[in-house]
Design goal:
Blueprint (H helix, E strand, L loop, with lengths): L4 E8 L3 H12 L4 E4 L14 E3 L14 E4 L2 E5 L5 E5 H4 L4 E4 L1 H14 L3 E3 L2 E9 L2 E9 L2 E12 L7 H4 L11 E10 L7 E5 L8 E8 L2 E9 L7 H12 L2 H4 L2 E11 L8 E2 L2 E3 L15 H21 L8 H25 L4 H10 L10 H11 L12
Length: about 400
Amino acid sequence: MTADLTTDVLVVGAGPAGSMTAKWAAKHGAKVLMIEKRQEIGSPVRCGEGMSKAWLSDVGITPGRWINLEVEGARIYSPSEKVFEINEKHAGNEVGYVVERDEFDKQLAIDAANAGVDVVLKTAATSVLKENGRVVGVKAKRFGEPFEIRATVTIAADGFESQVGRWAGISTNIAMRDMDTCLQYRMTNVDCDVRYCDFFLGKVAPGGYVWVFPKGEGLANVGIGVQVSQVKAMADARNYLDRWIEHHPGYAKGKKIDMVGGGVSISAPLKQTVGDGIMLVGDAARMIDPLTGGGIANGCIAGKICGEVAAEAVHAGTPTKEFFQKYEVGWRAVLEEKLYRNWLAKEKLVQLSDETFDKVIDALQGVRLEKLSVHNILKAVNEKYPEVTKEFEAFL
């Protein structure tokens, strides 16, 4: 029989956002327990493994062995394969590392444990505990045995399929157009350029893109994200990706040694991420960038804020929805405007024809952007093809 547990802060989910929240709550003096339903943190990997780097020092992450490659930049290909190159000089925070994601997740959990967090694996939350309308922990199962974990503050860091927030009464519903279905192969014997991460736009990946993230000479993650509302069957993503590979000889000659798949939210952020006794963070709070599908940086940045507020609530004895507005206001001040603008831009971009994508990339030839943003890209396109940007006037 598994004994019931009590803690100040309970974090459900040991991904980057969960580990970061747990670490910062512990660093601010709270007793923290982090549970993970899988037996190994970071596995299986469901990630393209590309990551920007400018934010790492802000949340106390030191670059380590989890870095595969430091890339010079990114290349964005139009449907006719005109290319727009982004390098660190002109878009520093969008360019960075290709990583071993399982090693990265493990390192963040190690950092959390070293800060005093207790980590329990193979433990799944099955429902929330409530008293007088306030979340006071979860019912859980470990090796099939049910038990309870009572906590002053509960953090839902349980990813894209988050159930903890829903059980607590926070709406996490998502529309089909706000989801991508993704598939990725790790491929060897391919002609990838280790200096760049590559992105291919247009009908090759309806509502999304094909990506190539180099892992080393001749080794790359080759993947695709397609908008769920634009496919008829889940196998369509694989068919699109296989077709793209077939038409690119440098990849068609490669061999697949690994395959992962999953869903990614490309939605606007949740209208509410807190309740009495509970906060949502990372993918569970829909903090993934709707344009890029990247969520690691946002989850970690919000996680630091979440952990600090959780510890403060424990010390003050005020784990209320009102007190948690500090977190709500804090993370939104840093992330919300970009997330919401990129969601609006995504809504427009998924309607563009291949011909229009070609014009966009053509207009960017030779342009040096001081900062990579939807606004700056549209300004550049507007100078050459004003008819293209008519739909995007709100962004200009």
